[in-house]
């Protein structure tokens, strides 16, 4: 049980910093990399789960560097297979260090992904049995094959005698003429053969054969348009739209698009919800659309002055494709939840000693596994929520919440986390109310997702400015981007994760959390956008008319 004792000792320690995570990552792969032997299967499963959790704290490049360090001898086929299914950089490093027997290689190679099998072709020390398995599976080297000696001689040979011009008589004492060297045409022919071989292997076509306009390369088509924001005046005429759509839609009269429901809604000053309209004109906007818009009223007098909302495609290839992808993601999450739920249940049974006494050491490990499982399930819930929000399959719970009060309270909570790092929020939130048509829990979740992500990415000694503006018909919470996010080309796709015990809004990194917050804001009628070095969250305010009961209900 020597193996299990060491593994249990390592798992008992919680990695609270990136440095500790790297140390524990090395310890685990060192222990798991030994020859397969008897031991506690649950303990080994906990070790692999811990490796997954540590991977969230260590970048891919750093993990690949650790795995590729000299001195490792991965002699456990199970660990080699696990690494082979990881990121290509990590898989390549692990397969280069793996030291298995001929029988183990022969059994393992068919189970590896095709990409990982290709990495093995760069090794020159594989057993003959492994080479035969690779050959049988059709895994070949990607190097350019050497030409046959006779073919190369033909390419570089001088012209035949019957094709050569008649030699000029040389003086009697002249030295023999030097041997003819390959000319430029011969070298060019060899280069052309190499280029033809490369194109045949990659399937690339000659640019000269591709049809294009005489004046240059073919113009790339614009991406499909599936939604856009707009504003309309009190008569229903579009007077504002997103910059790239404005020339196609400005001046369009919504009441003239063939739907009597639009006229009734505008005359009654009601919200537009799911109205189907057909646009004609430019190719990008032509077709059937669904319109969702909210009426706008002046704050002082409550005078109606138009609508602001969004057009979204009623039926389009883009929507169908997104819905299909979201459905596949939900099915995958369902399949992944089943084993994680089972693992969590078994761990809780052990930790609570429901089937008999359990040593404290194993109860501690079971509690850790149960916590990690809950962490993973929470991540699955966030993925499922994002998929539903982006295809319009989920609506936020309606209600009334003061977003300004929520922001002030959460900023005070996060200041206590930032203070030990001499970092802080320089917040200018004012004292005014900012009522939203969202349930309290939904507004708190959205605000926390944004602020906690910014706090988690804030470095030591850094100050992040926050400003809340409630003067218009919508609120705007503007926040400076921390240095860790400022240089990102797409802030909604970065993988920045907080180090140590810093507060975080999710387990998939800052980019995912911000993308989820953006999806929630859009469903609520607003948006989350990057403007220069700032993030701006905009949400429609709850007007006085919306918050008061209608005359019919009041009279009843």
TrEMBL record:
InterPro entries: HisK_dim/P_dom, HisK_dim/P_sf. It comes from the Bacteria. It is an enzyme of class 2 (transferase). Keywords: Kinase, Transferase. SMART domains: HisKA. Residues 324-392 form the Signal transduction histidine kinase dimerisation/phosphoacceptor domain. It catalyses: ATP + protein L-histidine = ADP + protein N-phospho-L-histidine. Residues 159-185, 198-221 are annotated as: Disordered. GO terms for molecular function: kinase activity. Its EC number is 2.7.13.3. This is histidine kinase.
């Amino acid at each position: 049980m020597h193996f299990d004792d060491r593994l249990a000792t390592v798992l008992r320690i919680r990695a609270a910093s990136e440095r500790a995570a790297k140390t524990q990552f090395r310890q685990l792969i060192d222990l798991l990399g030994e020859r397969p032997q008897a031991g506690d299967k649950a303990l080994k499963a906990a070790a692999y789960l811990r490796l997954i959790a540590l991977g969230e704290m260590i970048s891919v490049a750093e993990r690949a560097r650790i795995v590729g360090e000299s001195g490792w001898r991965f002699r456990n086929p199970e660990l080699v297979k696990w690494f082979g299914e990881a990121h290509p950089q990590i898989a390549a490093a692990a397969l280069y260090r793996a030291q298995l027997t001929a029988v183990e290689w022969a059994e393992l190679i068919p189970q590896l992904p095709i990409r990982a099998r290709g990495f093995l072709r760069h090794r020159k020390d594989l057993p003959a049995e492994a080479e035969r398995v690779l050959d049988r599976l059709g895994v070949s080297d990607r190097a350019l094959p050497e030409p046959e000696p006779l073919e190369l001689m033909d390419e570089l040979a001088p012209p035949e005698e019957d094709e050569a011009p008649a030699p000029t008589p040389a003086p009697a004492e002249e030295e023999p003429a030097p041997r003819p060297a390959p000319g430029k045409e011969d070298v060019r022919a060899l280069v052309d053969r190499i280029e033809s071989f490369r194109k045949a292997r990659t399937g690339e076509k000659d640019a000269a054969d591709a049809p294009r306009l005489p004046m240059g390369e073919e113009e790339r088509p614009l991406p499909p348009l599936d939604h856009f924001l707009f504003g309309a005046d009190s008569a229903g005429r579009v007077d504002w739209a997103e910059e790239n759509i404005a020339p196609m839609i400005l001046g369009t009269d919504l009441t003239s698009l063939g739907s009597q429901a639009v006229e009734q809604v505008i005359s009654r000053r009601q919200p537009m919800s799911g109205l189907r309209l057909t646009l004609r004109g430019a190719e990008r906007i032509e077709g059937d659309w669904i319109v969702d818009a909210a009426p706008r009223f002046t704050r002082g007098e409550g005078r109606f002055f138009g609508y602001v909302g969004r057009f979204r495609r009623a039926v389009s290839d883009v929507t169908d494709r997104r819905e299909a992808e979201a459905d596949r993601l939900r099915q995958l999450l369902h399949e992944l939840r089943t084993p994680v739920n089972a693992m969590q249940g078994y761990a809780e049974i052990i930790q609570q000693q429901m089937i008999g006494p359990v040593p404290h050491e194993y109860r501690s490990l079971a509690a850790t596994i149960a916590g990690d499982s809950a962490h993973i399930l929470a991540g699955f819930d966030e993925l499922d929520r994002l998929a539903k929000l982006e295809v319009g399959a989920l609506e936020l719970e309606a209600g009334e919440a003061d977003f300004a009060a929520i922001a002030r309270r959460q900023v005070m909570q996060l200041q206590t986390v930032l203070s030990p790092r001499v970092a802080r929020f320089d917040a200018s939130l004012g004292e005014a109310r900012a009522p939203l048509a969202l349930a309290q829990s939904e507004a708190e979740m959205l605000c926390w997702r944004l602020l906690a992500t910014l706090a988690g990415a804030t470095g030591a000694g850094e100050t992040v400015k926050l400003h809340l503006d409630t003067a218009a018909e919508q609120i705007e919470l503007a926040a400076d981007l921390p240095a860790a996010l400022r240089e990102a080309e797409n802030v909604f796709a970065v993988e920045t994760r907080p180090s140590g015990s810093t507060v975080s809004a999710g387990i998939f990194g800052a980019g995912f959390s911000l993308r989820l917050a953006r999806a929630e804001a859009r469903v609520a009628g607003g948006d989350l956008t990057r403007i220069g070095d700032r993030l701006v969250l905009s949400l429609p305010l709850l007007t006085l008319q919306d918050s008061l009961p209608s005359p019919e209900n009041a009279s009843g």
